[in-house]
Amino acid sequence: MTERIPAPRARARGAHSGRPKADQSALDDDATLHAMGYPRKLTRRFQAFDNFAISFTIINIISGIFSSFGFGMNAGGPRILVFGWIGVSVMVLFVGAAMAEVASAYPTSGALYFSAGKLAKKHKGAWSWYTGWLNFVGQVGGTAATGYAAATFIQAFVALQWPSYRPTAHQTVLITALIIVLQGLANTYTVQLVAVLNRISVWWLLVGLVVIVTALVAVPDHHRPASFITHFANNTGFTSGLYGGMLGLLVTSWTFTGFDGSFHMSEETVQATVNAPKGITRSIAYSAVTGLILMLALVYSIGDYDSVASASAPPVQILIDALGLGTAKALLLIVIGAMLFCGLANLTSNTRQIFAFSRDGAMPGSRWWHSVSPRTRTPVKAVWLAVACSLALVLPGWWSHTAFTAIVSVNVVGLFLAYAVPILLRLRLGAEFQAGPWHLGRWGRPVGVVAVTWIALSSVLFMLPQASPITVDSFNYAPIALAAVLLVATVWWFTTARRHFQGPVSYGGPDEVAAMDLI
């Protein structure tokens, strides 16, 4: 397949060399898509900044850090929060660079599962199948978890504003459901609206970061001394400080998920073979730097360590102690807004994965889910399937927070395992790999090795116990949730799927699929 890509690109350039640059880019994008066997159904409205914005918003350093900071205070403390952030950010950048190289070669909405099917030498259907379902479940879990976090922080704000308010599990589930439905409505309309909202989200994050950091630096009378970043705390219940500190690395790993969003938006991005990989790597790099600044601001503003660490929402307690209740409530609105933007972008990425997976016949009712609205040029039915699946994951929280946590805990593990598969297959392919315009050259293999190794290590960490003593409430259900997903995918594969799903399909040669273009 990869050998066919240069031909249509060359024909487009030769036949239309006099066209304006924007038109030429569109021709090259379409030629690349046609060479991979797909007609153009989605509108290319995403520029380079828009593609970057989708991943930067999903990573969302404000949402990620505020959601997991308390866990880090008890699993390693400032030493792991700061230096763990730096180390893990570098490792994730290796993962992103390796993924970006694959994205440049296969710029489709199918992203991970499509490239897995094309890079595998044998059993292409199976590689594609498992990658697609891990990606799907991981993204649905991400939408549910982000909505749940936003609902939790909304209730924290309400409780600060009206002290008589008492959050309940039922209220959290209802607010989460409302958030996800509203995000579904936003994704129902044109991709141009989604692009505009994602541009706004980038500035919301950056301006919000500046406001929060400036307030934490300028307002408090006292800050922790410079040496405080070496402070170590292990309140996990485990006697091993090394183990407790390793668990603290998960704070950064939890934050850096979803950067495959740039990959999934390839078919809606101009000059996708370059802009999609740039979107992946830039979103990680910029998040690493801005996240470190926010992390340092929070760490140096901690007052009484034990009381903050034991608070229901430690970052909120830091804001209250350092800035006062009124300012803390105002800044909490910035955090809530960031979480809402994060969920919106995550749902967009999830929808495109469903669209592409269904286009290749890998989902029940595929004919429905890969259809595109003739009015908005968006996969509206896929949007609402993603909404329904996310709501299904949220629903167990009505009865048990532990059950909900067990379901969404597969979010990070599922996503990173899906990230690892095409990178691993690209390594196995060696010199046979046909790189796109954006590539790592001779560094491709070492970067890929580091990426796969880190994913393996971090995935093990995510499945280990995270608190002691181990009880029904503190047990880490991620291995069980992941095993359940893999079991269902395996039974489904061997009973029916392997007979009709052979991996990414081709709708014909470049000229044939060009005639099928809807726009």
TrEMBL record:
Q: Where is this region: Disordered?
A: 1-26
What are the entry keywords? Membrane, Transmembrane, Transmembrane helix, Transport
Its principal location? membrane
Q: Which PROSITE patterns does this UniProt record tie to the protein?
A: AMINO_ACID_PERMEASE_1
InterPro entries in the cross-refs: AA/rel_permease1 (IPR002293), Amino_acid_permease_CS (IPR004840)
Glycosyltransferase as UniProt keyword: no
According to its UniProt entry, the protein's GO biological process terms are: amino acid transport
Q: How does it sit in the membrane?
A: Multi-pass membrane protein
Please provide, alphabetically and separated by semicolons, the GO molecular function terms listed in this UniProt record.
transmembrane transporter activity
Basic residues: bias regions: 10-19
GO terms for CC?
membrane
What is the protein named? Amino acid transporter
Species of the source: Streptomyces naganishii JCM 4654
